[in-house]
Design a protein that fits this description.
It comes from Halogeometricum borinquense (strain ATCC 700274 / DSM 11551 / JCM 10706 / KCTC 4070 / PR3). Helix content is 35%, strand content 21%. By secondary structure, it is an alpha/beta fold. Bound molecules: adenosine-5'-triphosphate. Adenosine-5'-triphosphate (ATP) binds next to strand 2 and helix 2.
């Protein structure tokens, strides 16, 4: 375990940094994400088959299902990495079906991405400065006096301020000068989420964010996710660890063979016979 990870155990993961309220999401939409009749086939395989669900604002929803259930494909369809054969994806009331990933991210629907190899040779701070900023986010650091040369400097300063704010929030400000390639698995996950947050999203899609993360850092990541959820951010989480899903999500959607088998509270899901059967009799 790295010094950072073990050191974090002492402060019980309480982050004092708060994300600036001016950048928190609009909470006026009850169901920001709606997926309706989504279908995707690969040759003879139907990966997603008439999937329909909606995600409530400000919630942490888990998307679960056995291997091959269609979770990753669903994520890819929602975020524009894949185009559906049928069905629609609506975000904040707008049909975003088939839009390009960057256009969807600009709307405030963002997924975390692994740090690309070329970014490993850059520091954490450089990774943050190079994080894609969406148009909404850019407005935050746009100067009030357009056309003046000092604008550029002001924008840079505002961006830097925001970068430090987000680094502090995730408690990785002390490794700002560290090369991304030297980070532990868990620290990389924190950086990935910090980069995603810098795009000023309304909703974050997390695909197995705890894979390869040690328990202490997993707890810290979860603390940050809950803090952000309380501030109004909406999360959709794909995760294989059932206990983690059941303990942390208020709503769970179960995919099976590309369809929504059932959805409900963790208690509903745990006692659902069909779900247990879908997992081949395993403990859910
Ligand atoms: N690019 C592809 N080409 C062909 N088949 C694919 C492709 N992507 C996914 N599939 C198939 O679609 C089905 C759903 O896969 P998907 O990865 O979405 O499931 P998953 O629930 O994310 O699985 P896991 O939990 O194992 O990651 C599987 O049968 C898979 O083999």
């Amino acid at each position: 375990m790295s010094e950072t990870e073990s050191g974090s155990e002492t402060n019980e993961f309480e982050s004092e940094a708060k994300i600036d309220a001016t950048s928190t999401p609009d909470v006026s939409v009850e169901y920001p994400l709606q997926v309706d009749g989504l279908r995707k086939t690969f040759g003879g395989i139907t990966a997603v088959d008439d999937a329909t669900f909606q995600i409530e604002n400000g919630t942490l929803t888990g998307l679960i299902g056995p291997n091959g259930a269609g979770k990753s494909t669903t994520f890819n369809l929602i975020t524009g990495m894949l185009k559906p054969d049928k069905g629609t994806v609506t975000f904040n009331g707008e049909d975003i079906t088939g839009m390009e990933p960057h256009a969807i991210a600009n709307k405030g629907l963002v997924r975390t991405f692994q740090i690309a190899r070329e970014l490993e040779d850059m520091t954490v701070l450089e990774n943050m400065m190079l994080a894609p900023k969406n148009q909404r986010g850019e407005k935050l650091w746009r100067s009030v006096t357009p056309g003046v040369r000092n604008d550029v400097i002001e924008q840079e300063e505002e961006l830097l301020e925001r970068v430090w704010e987000v680094l502090e929030f995730f408690e990785i400000d002390h490794i700002a000068e560290e090369y991304a390639g030297n980070l532990s698995g868990g620290q990389r996950k924190l950086l990935e989420m910090a980069r995603a947050l810098l795009t000023d999203p309304d909703m974050l899609l997390l695909d197995e964010p705890f894979a390869g993360v040690n328990p202490s850092l997993e707890k810290r990541l979860l603390t940050h996710i809950h803090e952000l959820r309380e501030q109004g951010y909406t999360f959709l989480l794909v995760e294989h660890d059932m206990d983690l899903i059941m303990e942390n999500c208020e709503h769970v959607i179960v995919l099976h063979q590309g369809r929504v088998l059932t959805e409900g509270t963790p208690a509903d899901i745990k006692s659902n016979e069909e779900v247990i059967e879908a997992y081949l009799g395993g403990n859910v």
